[in-house]
Amino acid sequence: MGNTRQVPTASDLEGALRSAALRVTRPRMAVLAAVHAHPHADTDSIIGAVRSDHTEVSHQAVYDVLRALTTAGLVRRIQPSGSVARYESRVGDNHHHVVCRSCGDLADVDCAVGDTPCLIASHDSGYSIDEAEVVYWGQCPTCLAAGPAGAASDRAPGDRGAAGATPTIRPSSETTGGPT
Ligand SMILES: [Zn+2]
Ligand SMILES: [Zn+2]
Fold first, then answer.
1. Which pTM does this prediction carry?
2. How far apart are CA 34 and CA 170, in angstroms?
3. How many angstroms is it from 137 CA to the middle of ligand 1?
């Protein structure tokens, strides 16, 4: 927490696309800007952000762009068990996430022991390892403050998808007060 997120300028975004050998298109610019502005947003939130910016895009176009940006390494896709996929522009540092079991809220967690120590597996079985996925599960401060009544005590971890609960996901940029 406490790190201000800077929304890159249009020329920053253009440069990022070019450096990833992606053609600069308006949908790609708009989606990349939306992911920067709304860390950990899901696809629907990204579509909403892009459209509120007066960019005409279809759902399919946003899915395609997100896939291209993820493949190019400009965007990281995270999908905790029982959650929809979320996207973030903080890539390349192998940071982790903590997920609230009750409301599905999600926050960044820096690696506990340095840069990428978890990539040095004790036994790699001969694989070349380039990513380690660590997800911490628990309860967010809001749900903790709400008391045990709101806790998902009767639900098994990873079983939230089947429960039909739709967590309301607020992009964390709304609470950090950064310029939008
Ligand atoms: Zn919560
Ligand atoms: Zn993150």
1. 0.71
2. 14
3. 11
